[in-house]
Design goal:
Helix content: 25-40%
Strand content: 25-35%
Radius of gyration: 21 Å
Low-confidence stretches: 1-40
Amino acid sequence: MPRSAATKPKGEAEAQRQRKNRRARVPATAHPATMPTLIDDASAGTPLAALQAVDWNSAHAALDASGYALLPALLSAEACRAVAAFYLHPEHFRSRVVMARHGFGRGEYQYFGYPLPPLVDALRTAAYARLAPLANCWNEAMGIDVRYPPTHADFLARCHAAGQVRPTPLLLRYQAGDYNCLHQDLYGEHVFPLQLAVLLSSPGIDFTGGEFVLTEQRPRLQSRAEVVPLGQGDAVVFAVRQRPVRGVRGYFRANLRHGVSRLHSGCRHTLGIIFHDAAP
């Protein structure tokens, strides 16, 4: 005789409850309108709280020493899934790029349109304020006259006045066999010298391979490559184009490029936050 809901054994009822809980979680393909609100204030457990908790003196020291700094656990697993879910909803983006068509590698990415999702906009604004002082120190050391204002709104006004009006934050998607060639994200005359990338997928679970790679070229020396290990929700801040390196006769400019090694299996999503906007 079939068992009714009222007579289910305790173990079966518990299993059903767990299945319901799993279905209640945000799936990778959920529409953004159905996602939990991504809080963009500094409440405990939010991305902005994680940014505030960063030891920025240590982060700046790492950037000075190596051209990059890790920001562990910037986004929760839930926030990573929510941001990655935007990818399947083109109404949130201004353009889509298939990398193989342009010789950029394999894989694809989409640029968000304005207005940006609240979490992306909040991270962009807050991270800029933390990085602008270091950007000014770098330019001074390299003998570059450009200085960056303390707020991102003022820097964007500078970009827009020069015709750089297209937003540059983007979502990247790699599948098995995909990779991103070494490159620099330059979109016009005005370039903020640092950018941020957040890994939204879980290495070893969602994908294998697909490491974040940086190379640095110093004058009269061979290039140095570095693989930056990232977990889900980890962010890396790194130089867009160049950084100052102290030599025996003062500072010189080291050129950097970044990319992603070939994915062996699965699917990898990344959020890229670039602080300058793009020219048409």
